[in-house]
UniProtKB/TrEMBL annotation:
Alphabetized InterPro entries for the sequence: Ribosomal_uL22, Ribosomal_uL22_bac/chlpt-type, Ribosomal_uL22_bac/org-type, Ribosomal_uL22_CS, Ribosomal_uL22_sf
GO molecular function: rRNA binding; structural constituent of ribosome
Subunit structure, as described in the record: Part of the 50S ribosomal subunit.
Signal peptide boundaries: none
NCBIfam families documented for this protein: rplV_bact (TIGR01044)
Record carries keyword Protease: no
Gene3D superfamilies: Ribosomal protein L22/L17
Organism, scientific name: Candidatus Azambacteria bacterium GW2011_GWB1_42_17
Record flagged with keyword Ribosomal protein: yes
Protein name in UniProt: 50S ribosomal protein L22
Superkingdom, natural source: Bacteria
Length: 149
């Protein structure tokens, strides 16, 4: 499925994935739209100038679950996940104009005061010693029973 849209322009790949009747088409389409929007917003690239240079699917973590089987046994089931990697490039390279942030100077006012305040004395609070906890609940019921001899 990933090989279908490899080396395609972004717009053509979107159209191909919209009408593809496969379950994996929706997550790939979502990733493609997100990558194109990020390229336009973060790097000031034109969406019409982008194409998919590489796309591949790697195995992700497996969720291990169990199904009950005959005679009290359990059979392991692996719910497999995958990692999808998509790399976009420009057809014709353009000079990138990165957004630059201007630094602003913050005016700092110095306040002349009467001096530093004396630090308040630190008091340590004594820790309370708790009495030993008695056995309760389930433990008390077990050890209360008489041994049968």
């Amino acid at each position: 499925m990933a090989d279908l849209v490899k080396k395609m322009p972004v717009k053509d790949a979107e159209n191909q994935l919209k009408f593809l009747d496969k379950r994996a088409a929706l997550p790939v389409l979502k990733l493609l739209k997100s990558a194109a929007a990020s390229a336009v917003h973060n790097f000031n690239l034109s969406a019409d100038n982008l194409f998919i240079s590489n796309i591949f699917v790697d195995g992700g973590p497996m969720l291990k679950r169990f199904r009950p089987r005959a005679f009290g046994r359990a059979a392991a089931i692996q719910k497999k996940t995958s990692h999808l990697t998509l790399i976009l490039e420009e057809k014709t390279p353009t000079a990138r104009k990165m957004k630059t942030k201007t630094k602003t100077k913050v005016a700092v006012k110095e306040i002349q005061g009467g001096g530093e305040k004396p630090a308040a004395p630190k008091y340590e609070t004594p820790k309370e010693i708790k009495p030993a906890r008695k056995l309760g609940g389930f433990t008390r019921r077990i050890f209360r029973r008489k041994a049968i001899g």
